[in-house]
Write a structure and sequence with these properties.
The complex is a heterodimer of chains A (385) and B (373). Chain A contains 13 helices and 15 strands. Chain A is an alpha/beta fold and 385 residues long. An eight-stranded mixed β-sheet of chain B has the order 1-4-3-2-5-6-8-13, sandwiched between helices. Chain B has a three-stranded mixed β-sheet with strand order 10-11-14, covered by helices on one side. With 373 residues, chain B is of the alpha/beta class. Chain B starts with 6 loop residues before the first strand and ends with a helix. The chains are: A alpha/beta (385), B alpha/beta (373). The structure holds NADP nicotinamide-adenine-dinucleotide phosphate. The site of NADP nicotinamide-adenine-dinucleotide phosphate has 25 residues of chain B, from helix 5 and strand 9.
Amino acid sequence: MLKVAIVGCGKIADAHLSQLQRVKGCQVVGVCDLEPLMARQLYERFHVSQYFGDLTELLTVAKPDVVHITTPPDSHFDIATLCLESGCHVYVEKPFTLYEEEARRLIALANDRGLKLTVGHDDQFRHAARRMRTLVQTGYLGGRPAHMESYYCYELDRSSYAGALLGDKGHWVRRLPGKLLQNIISHGIARIAEFLTSESPHVMAYGFTSPFLRSTGERKIADELRVLICEEERTTAYFTFSTQMRPSLHQFRIYGPENGLILDQDHETLIKLRGARFKSYLEHFIPPLSMAQQHLGNLITNLGIFLASDFHMKSGLKYLIESFYRSIVEGTSVPIPYREILLTARIMDTIFAQLDAQQREVVPGHLALQTADENGRPSSLHSTP
Amino acid sequence: MDTNAVIARCFADERRAIDESDRDTFLIGPDDLILITGATGFIGSRVVKNLLDHGFRNLRCFARPSSDVAKIDALTGGACGGMRVELVKGNLLSRDDCSVATKDAAVVLHLAAARGEKSFPDAFMNSVVTTRNLLEACLEHQCLRRFVTVSSFTVYSNRQKPRGRLLDESCPVEAHPELRGDPYCFAKTRQDELVAEYGKKFGIPYVIVRPAYVYGPGNEALPGRVGIRTFGIFLHLGGSNTIPLTYVDNCAEAIALAGLKKGVDGEVFNVVDDDLPSSRRFLRLYKQNVRRFASLYVPRFVSYALCYLWERYSAWSEGQLPPVFSRRQWHAYWKKTHYSNAKLKTRLGWAPNVPRAQAFRRYFEACRERRHA
Ligand SMILES: NC(=O)c1ccc[n+]([C@@H]2O[C@H](COP(=O)([O-])OP(=O)(O)OC[C@H]3O[C@@H](n4cnc5c(N)ncnc54)[C@H](OP(=O)(O)O)[C@@H]3O)[C@@H](O)[C@H]2O)c1
């Protein structure tokens, strides 16, 4: 029986505990938060045996085997370091750390101590996402991906999160180097990183503050981001984060030399895009029919999973936790390769560095187009004084 | 704390001075400082107006930097006179902000809360942690005469009532609010407990006010006690049940009096208007005055059975459907119940200044305006 503890008792900790109750072979031995009232409410609602206001006390008294870190991102590195040093395996919520360098150090420490780490990119383990991975691994694309498109949007104006963030000038999101973006985009970036092979792809980012956010008086937070990622002039990817576009997509499209796939996280659907064309007018009739058939197939699959009662909003989280625990108990490989964690962190570092440079260069309200120079580094094509 | 945003305003609006008769029954004088949290909210802004109308001249309104302060500005606009309404911007999650806000406050009317929040931690944080911070700050300054916490009818379990169908202040609150599946109920119950605990442990003089559903311009939604639209069509669940309503100005008067009247420390007051309509009548009036739409009446035994089934399925499926409908929820919202405001009237001298007909007229008018906006 693995002994599990949770550090950080906010919203995402609720999701972890809800799913942990469904995971066999583990027992939650403690929850901890600097704000003891928050720790207590979680302990009460989920009938955990103990709650703590101090991490060291949690580690020494409850002696967990695994710690889930669900605190604000700027504390991930320090808490994960302490947990690893205390001999615990660690599940770190996304974003893994603030910088790639911190991620690298955590992975080195874990390897040193023979411990395991994972990151909360649970969306990649939802039902349709797993079906997509299987298809890619079995060669459906017909070779290495030629292009990917990842949309990870967020309806800021509708969320209570917006109220909390905009209403609090000291909100922790404001302390992150990438601010709002850093807290959200890693899911969408990791989807791309999973299928990249080079260690340092070129990254070109452009971000700005949406009119909605500007209308609230906000100037410091970028909530629109477009990124072009390119590796070895072979595989390219677009990443889009938007708080304003509708529908607010969570989609991933991947195209190979033969076929493509569209994963829609909101609809929990996976659609195959056949590369070969039909003759003449048949191209207008057969593909729409095949699309209808595929959508119906997805509907039936979803209904089946629902009836089997495995269609929870956070079903990916349960799968990821189970896979991670299995890797600990059975000594198998971790569900998210460390290479992918590092590459995601590296791409994000580059994005935020470029946005930072943009913000310093550009007069607010004026347009700046970013392009890459011959070395793939971003250079300003046009920035008005 | 956004110190630049601390705005002191004076104005010479000739509001009525405190009546001689009231003066003896009030805990504080017209120049003692009253802090109102959630002052820019639906009810908070009416509380500010009510206090000004009562002749209180030294108010501090607390609001988050992102709050829309237009309502407060509208109340306090005008030239300089003997009144001071200060707008302090901050967040009750910050202990420092709470300390600044409570400095010199003789009465705290605490309305700020996460209403409509769907996550337990967020609801809890913005109701319980904020309340704790405020109470701690009050202890630090040692000048508090009364702390009024605004709770809600939602905290009542509406079961095992001592007097049959009558719900009053003596009725039990939800013993296990975590099982209701309602973050607001959980947060409000714990908030009440916390205030009572601080009263007991540290002698903080407190009063708990529990309003029923507060309606009026600014809250144009149909009460969930009447029915819900979760499944596409409007399910009318209230039927012949009495709907516990209080018009926003009447509610504001009750909250103000709870902060002002002497001799009510440690008391709980339910706030509900006179002459309450049945759910069926309320829905009919709404359809006549605002808009027509199809609704499906669900008899009480059917809604109870559905709530039970939902609760069982939620448990069986390990939360695939969240436990938002349950028997506890049914008891709290859709069970036939009668309500009393006797204590409010006798102990606080409250009366619903806005009668039902007028309140409904204003409410329906606001609903129509909102629809056409
Ligand atoms: N409306 C009802 O039917 C009803 C019924 C029973 C009881 N109540 C209670 O009455 C009180 C007022 O309700 P309402 O209807 O006026 O709600 P409201 O309009 O939502 O107002 C709540 C206020 O609290 C503020 N607030 C929330 N979190 C805060 C924080 N961390 N720091 C500072 N301020 C914060 C909000 O600020 P922002 O403007 O920045 O969001 C808002 O102004 C609440 O305690 C509620 O539970 C309401």
